[in-house]
Amino acid sequence: MSGPLALDALDLAALLCSRVCHDLISPTGAIVNGLEVLEEDTDAETRSFALDLIKKSAKTASARLQFCRLAFGAAGSAGAKIDLGEAESMARGFMEDEKTKLSWNLPRGLMLKNRVKLLLNMLVVATQTIPRGGTLTVEPIGEDETMGFRITASGISARIPPALPKLLDGIPSNGAIDAQAIQPFYTGLLARVCGLAVGLAAEDDAIVLATR
Question: Fewest beta carbons within 10 Å, which of 47, 62, 78, 199?
Answer without folding.
Answer: 78
